[in-house]
Amino acid sequence: MRLSMYQVDAFTDTLFHGNPAAIVPLEHWLPDETMQNIAAENNLSETAFFVPKETDYELRWFTPGGEVSLCGHATLATAFVIFHHLEPKRSNITFFTKGGILMVFREGDLLTMLFPPKETMRIPHPELLVQGLGKRPIEVQKGYNYLAVYETEEEIFALRPDFDILRKLDAHGVIVTARGRKVDFVSRYFAPKLGVNEDPVTGSAHCSLVPYWSKIMGKTEFTAYQLSFRGGKIICSNLGERIKLTGEAVLYSEGTIYIPD
After folding, report:
1. Which domain holds residue 145?
2. Quick one: signal sequence residues (predicted)?
């Protein structure tokens, strides 16, 4: 079996920056084991697979370690492939996913996604989290992920986590964040439990970051930057029932993978 595959750098307008995702268009779903093996072979933070559903698409995401229910950058990358290579006349797409219905709109070079918010609640500092991060945050929240808040951008950049400790936590991953110097807020995201020690740019994490910083700053429009090695910029808005995430993407490669029938 031959399958087309694209690799796209998301949340950037510059190749070799942002977050790379592999995108595999399908006519019908492959066995979960096969999709997981492809994701592990790609060894990117996410590989996205999609199939037609009426006039739109069903979409699933796999990390090297397992399937996830929501992924921002691989959704952006999938939309980029559809808009630029498969259906260039389209201006919007609806994706049906395990995390809900996601919508993506094309506005010139910008792609805008509407995602559900992921609220968090303030909790006492878990000692395992503090040990894993190596520096005590000023505040900890928890939802789908842990959210650790620090005072400065420099602290976020300087963190050198112990991923073996973070892997033991009872959440999918750990978001760390602080106010930014040139943007509203900065962040990093660690998910060793899913086989991704540090994700370069994490759209889904901003579904928690935006509601949090909306309460702290008293506003709804943000420019955010993820302080990973590759780095990435996300323009965010809190629309209440939806989080609006806007970014760009660039194509790195297009090719064929060969799967035994």
Report:
1. 121-241
2. none
